[in-house]
Specification:
This protein is 11% helix and 25% strand. By secondary structure, it is of the alpha+beta class. Strands 1, 2, 3, 4, 5, 6, 7, 8, 9, 10, 11, 12, 13 and 14 form a 14-stranded mixed sheet that branches. The chain is globular and about 55 Å long.
């Protein structure tokens, strides 16, 4: 049975409640809520006015979780708005480098050897181990974000050679980088052929100025509505996709440890090396004014994955999509499921190796 909250006299104000809960999504994520909390404390927002004794007691009583109404009480086992669980999302620290990296696909510099690698990728749906090993690492300097993939593959194959071909119809690896209001999709196959797309949430498309950018205008024939793949009920609503945007200054390279497109022998696999210039991320950083390059302890959301045109034999339930962090549905386009990437200004040589 619900209870009616008493009304205090106008001259006995009720203290404001400071919202510091962690909300899902990029817009009201953990980092933002903690910043708001810290700023509120500095402003003195947590200094409550004086109460009359009856109202003070009423405030304490009715603020208790035990008497919250059904509309506001947190329910145990509440279903997430997203198909991934917050507790399952991966966290990773990307370390700074000072020595130059040659983008040749080999990942043989000392920095790559020192960088922590992700765990072995898991199935995007089930989160279970996959047939072949896939790992990734992230590093950075003041000019670029660097991403490397190690892909175990007994038969390395690729067919597409033209940019923005449907690379997802080959075996590929993919990178998604999300800002608050936008995110970027990148795919690459073993022939070093790439596919790019840029996505913008409708709720900020006009008011944040994205609509005037030629590559993002609705009138552009390469810009069209997009509603996800398997998760088509995103709480944030609709978005636009632009297939007319190329990442400025992007460098890519692939190295095949074996023979490409030759099924008669057995290959070890392939490695991918990528350099994304920070200055090319201005439209990703715009929404929440992220620093470029990042500051120490800044956090971005990034998703790294691998798609195959084959599946593990039965009884394995292999979806063909292998991810750093499980999404729980056949859809890469859920920024709220992307791993948290924290940037450290410490040199990669100081990175602790996993035990």
């Amino acid at each position: 049975m619900s209870r009616v909250r008493p009304v205090c006299p106008a001259n006995a104000p009720i203290a404001p409640r400071l919202e510091t809960g962690i909300a899902p999504g990029l817009k009201t994520g953990y980092a933002n809520s903690m910043i708001i909390h810290e700023r509120a404390i500095r402003r003195g927002a947590t200094r409550f006015p004086r109460f009359s004794l009856p109202c003070l007691l009423a405030f304490i009583f009715f603020s208790s979780p035990l008497v919250h109404s059904a509309e506001t009480a947190p329910r145990q086992g509440t279903v997430s708005k997203f198909p991934c669980e917050e507790a399952e999302i991966a966290h990773y620290t990307a370390y700074h480098i000072t020595k130059p990296i040659r983008i040749d696909g080999r990942l043989d510099e000392a920095s790559w050897k020192a960088a922590p690698r992700s765990p072995r990728f898991i199935d995007v749906l089930s989160g279970k181990p996959t047939l072949h090993d896939t790992q990734a690492a992230i590093m950075w300097d003041d000019q670029n974000l660097y991403i490397g993939f190690w892909v175990e593959e007994p038969n390395v194959a690729a067919t597409f050679t033209e940019r923005n071909s449907p690379i997802y119809e080959n075996n590929d690896v993919e990178v998604f980088i999300a800002g608050r209001d936008t995110y970027y999709e990148f795919e690459i196959n073993a022939l070093n052929t790439i596919y790019e797309a840029f996505f913008l949430w409708e709720d900020t498309y006009e008011k944040e100025g994205y609509s005037v950018v030629p590559q993002f205008k609705r009138s552009n024939p390469k810009v069209r509505p997009f509603n996800g793949v398997g998760f088509t009920t995103h709480p944030r609503g609709g978005r636009l996709g632009s297939w007319d945007w190329a990442f400025p200054g992007l460098k890519t390279a692939v190295h095949v440890d074996g023979t490409l497109n030759n099924a008669k022998d057995k290959d070890r696999g392939w490695t991918v090396e990528l350099a994304f210039p920070w200055q090319g991320m201005k439209w990703l950083a715009k929404g929440d004014q992220q620093a470029l390059p990042p500051r120490n302890d800044d956090v971005w959301r990034m998703d790294l994955s691998r798609f195959n045109q084959y599946k593990a034999p039965s009884p394995a339930k292999d979806s063909g999509g292998w991810f750093w962090s499980r999404h729980g549905i056949w859809d890469s386009h859920i920024p709220e499921c992307f791993p948290y990437i924290r940037f450290s200004t410490n040199d990669v040589a100081t990175a602790a190796k996993p035990r």
